[in-house]
Amino acid sequence: MVIVSAYVEVPEVVAAIVHHPDKLVRQSCHVSSVSTCIDLRNLFISNQTCFPKIIEQCSEGWVNNIIVTGCNPSKQKGKDERISFLRTLNPSCSIIEVVGNNYVDKDSIEEICAVDAFSESTLPISRHLTAPGWYSLKYKPNPPFIPITYLTVSFSGDLCKARFMSHLKSLHQKEGRVYVDRLMMSGSIFYVGGRTKFSDDNNLYTLECTPRSEAISLNIFNKPLLLVVRIVSFSLGTRSLKSR
User: Do 6 and 192 meet the contact criterion of CB atoms below 8 Å apart?
Assistant: First the structure.
């Protein structure tokens, strides 16, 4: 299984697998299905504007399953509207809902790992219409309508866990006002991710934070890696594609 995170072009990932430079790998690999993971809380920048590349990552012909997270049973109306929007983007795909921190069930796993879902006879036409020339490596994707800026911050020492988490939570209040007051202006932070250690703990943690939805994930990482926290922001001078 190949997992690609952040903002990617599905045709480029599939083409990289199909045209792998190693002949043995190229002959052994087969794209059986493609799934994209989307947090419903971060589907829109505003009421009418999607995050960059969301629509492309759900394109018909390229994606067989859309795995949606951030489902809140107490806000059924908003959830249904968002899922309905995703269905209009790709009527032929399966929508797999993950509520809270629950895992994907057995039936959904079978859909994600379907052997020949990507090769269904009706899908190649859609692929060539949405990304002409992709198979011959001539496809050139359009740049995001909002420039994406990646900032990498390295720390020389360990962080105070309580203070760091407090600052991350405060981003939710700050960015909430940004969406209303200065939407799409320079400096808005939509995602923070990386690996770090804390002064009161010897463990290495992986961190993911989406300020708009106040979703913070902090888990122990077992492999010793360089201390780096990456901040992604969009400026005007954001779950995942999975393929087998």
Answer: no
